[in-house]
Amino acid sequence: MSAYKTIIIGTGPAGLTAAIYLARANLNPLVIEGPEPGGQLTTTTEVENFPGFPEGIMGPELMENMRKQAERFGAEFRSGWVNSVDMSERPFKLSVEGLGELKAETLIISTGASAKYLGIPGEKDNVGRGVSTCATCDGFFFRGKKIIVVGGGDSAMEEAHFLTKFASEVVLVHRRNDLRASKIMQDRARSNPKISWSLNRTPLEVESGPLGVTGLKVRNNETGEDETIATDGLFVAIGHTPNTKFLGGQLETDETGYLIVKPGSTETNVPGVFACGDVQDNKYRQAISAAGTGCMAALDCERFLENVEASLIEA
Ligand SMILES: Cc1cc2nc3c(=O)[nH]c(=O)nc-3n(C[C@H](O)[C@H](O)[C@H](O)COP(=O)(O)OP(=O)(O)OC[C@H]3O[C@@H](n4cnc5c(N)ncnc54)[C@H](O)[C@@H]3O)c2cc1C
Description:
single chain, alpha/beta, FAD/NAD(P)-binding domain, seven-stranded mixed β-sheet, five-stranded parallel β-sheet, 6 helices, about 30% strand, binds flavin-adenine dinucleotide
């Protein structure tokens, strides 16, 4: 079996942007779609902050357009789930559910980071109908409305604080009295007059009506009684899991599991393996930043292949 010059794993904005660049450079990348073709934006409705669409664009349509753009230049797409990768030597060997073993001279990892959910009834059914995991993405839709943020870490404090720009009121719900968040982030949230606190409450169920979320049912851990906090929106801010399990620890990660790339590039610790998008981005996690690093990964990969070819000619 001959090796592909490049295999891109994942078809979110990062992987598809890398595919567009590599296909236009005549490198015929193979793109493996994975469990969620089109990535996270296929789970949302309107995207209003991706440049180039003054009226906004539906998430699935945006991703379909990116895919078509990559196909137009010759990127090959295949459905499959990468189970493992052997990076001990090049070409790298991939074991792909549904496709068997594949080989690649270079790899681009763009497998994203999945938001953690509470796992309570009514939550997943109402994603896009009031339930969100991204304040930057969806805060704007909640102007003048009441919002609940669930979580007790820095990101929950950050999201709550950010959401007060739009919401009439933000209620922070956490299952314990103590917060994991750093003191400085807690102080900032506590001094914000628009934020109120509902601590020591365990979320039980998201309540909704025909127009979306109406409330969050919680258990008061002190009294054991259940109550419903009325709300128009629920932001779940309990963290993300970068999708890196299939890499079996061969690439360096930070303490939260995000892939580490060399500053200012998409190079990982294994030469020929590049990472882009949310899987290496603990900070921004936006479609446009994912697409930007996808472009970087393609250019880094192209240069790597050129250098390999040049060294073969010299040898
Ligand atoms: C509900 C929601 C709304 C959002 N709204 C906005 C918004 O309005 N604006 C904005 O800028 N951002 C928004 N975001 C964030 C944005 O979607 C992400 O930042 C972006 O999708 C990250 O792109 P990515 O390419 O890194 O990864 P993802 O989009 O997460 O794509 C990951 C890809 O990797 C594949 N994959 C994973 N594991 C494997 C494997 N083992 N084998 C093969 N393939 C695999 C998946 O199938 C998928 O195709 C939103 C996110 C969510 C969840």
